[in-house]
Structures are given as C-alpha cells and as structure tokens.
Design brief:
Layout lengths: L13 E3 L20 H11 L3 H4 L4 H9 L8 E5 L7 H8 L4 E6 L2 H9 L7 E4 L12 E7 L8 H10 L1 E11 L3 H7 L12 H11 L1 E9 L2 E8 L1
Parallel strand pairs: 2-3, 2-5, 3-4, 5-6
Antiparallel strand pairs: 1-4, 6-8, 7-8
Helix pairs in contact: 6-8
Length: 230
C-alpha cells in the first residue's frame, strides 16, 4: 500500500507471470462488511498509473519493514495487497533466487503497473482476494501486508485466511509508511476508537485468527505490527 487508503482484495485469475508459480496494494474506499470488490478495483484502477509518482520516497521504509520479517534464503513469502509491487524487490533479495515471492492484489491495473515497472521479475503476480487465497495450507513462511489491514474484506476472516496459508511459527508484518495519527491528519479526520489498526482492536483479532502479536509500533513515520503464526 502507501499513503492514501482503500478496501481489500478479491479472488481471480493470474495477472502476470513471474519467477514462481502461485499467488497485491491499496488505499481508498471501505473495509469489512462494507467491502466492495468493484469499488476497490475502480478506486485503484483510476490511480494505478500515478501511484508510484505520488509516493516516490517510500522505498527505504518498505525495505526496513521487509527486514522485520527476518526472511532467510529459500523461504516462501506473500506480499498480500502488493499494488504496484514496491516490496517485491526487497522480498526477493531477502529470500534469494531459490525462494518464492508471490504478489497478490485485487486490482488488475495495479498488477499491470507492477509488471510495467519490471517488478514481475521479482515475483509471481496474481489477481486474488486475501479472504479466499488460491493457496494450499501452510505453504508459506511469511506474509507482508502494506496498507492492508484496514482494507481487508472482513479483517477477522482475512487474518484467518492468511494464517491458514502460513506454517506454524511463520511471520506476518502489517505495515504503513506513516502512523495512524499522521494518516488521519492527512485526510482531515480524527482517529476513532473503532479503527481496526488500533492495538486494542487488532490484538484480539490476530489472536482469534491464530496469530500472536509480537510487537506494535504506531509512530508518525511508521506503522508496523509483527505477529507469529501459532
């Protein structure tokens, strides 16, 4: 994701070939029970071609967030909601040529931009939904989700689905280049108690979905949650 804000992801077919086979990014409309696949796709499709130019300085923040996963050569990782694929190069660097990197997004136009930028060389790009992943159980070592959590189609259901495809003791990073307060100020509204990204709300959702929160950071220049699959 980045610094604007949208819903989640949805099931579909492969968009662009990559080095691996198997199975997104976002910021905009709504989440949870109000999540609407067509609205999400429309929102991001209209912005896809200028997405990277709107947020040109996020690269180091993405690389630092990827490092929190502690990936090792040969491991298998999913970028859930990869958008234009900013995390794909650091993910590939972390797992090396023998690892697997999958980039999943609900918006075809975002995946097309990722391929246009050459990021399909780092990963298999797949059109899909985090609430219904086209992946077998326990097939991944880790999941990276930038700008994902507040735009998932049902946060609890989506977190459970992410847990399903990660092996026991696998890792999850939920990331945004700026914190909740800074993002709210940018959009001209106040934080609300029902924000799913707030620790009191997110921790029990993660626990119920099979994750254990290891750390939580909500700072002006970073939002980052690290969790481990139980």
């Amino acid at each position: 994701m980045t610094q604007e804000t949208t819903p989640g992801t949805s099931s579909g077919s492969a968009a662009s070939p990559g080095q691996d086979t198997a199975h997104g990014r976002r910021e905009g409309p709504v989440s949870g029970s109000s999540w609407n696949r067509a609205a999400v796709q429309e929102f991001f499709a209209e912005r896809a071609s200028r997405w990277d130019s709107r947020f040109p300085d996020d690269g180091p923040a993405y690389a630092a967030a990827v490092a929190q996963l502690g990936l090792r050569p040969g491991e298998r990782v999913l970028d859930a909601g990869c958008g234009t694929g900013r995390a794909l190069a650091p993910l590939r660097e972390a797992v090396g040529p023998n690892g697997t990197v999958l980039g999943l997004d609900v918006t075809p136009a975002m995946l097309e931009e990722a391929a246009r930028a050459g990021r399909h060389r780092h990963a298999a790009l797949l059109l899909g939904d985090v609430a219904q992943l086209p992946l077998p159980d326990a097939c991944l070592d880790a999941v990276f989700g930038a700008g994902l959590v507040s735009h998932m189609p049902g946060p609890g259901r989506s977190l459970r689905e992410l847990a399903r495809v990660v092996r026991p003791s696998g890792r999850l990073v939920l990331f945004h280049p700026v914190g909740r307060r800074a993002l709210a100020a940018r959009h001209g509204h106040a934080l609300t108690p029902d924000d799913v990204r707030a620790e009191p709300r997110l921790r029990p959702l993660l626990t119920a979905a099979g994750w254990r929160m290891l750390s939580y950071a909500d700072e002006d220049d970073r939002y980052l949650v690290l969790a481990r699959r139980e």
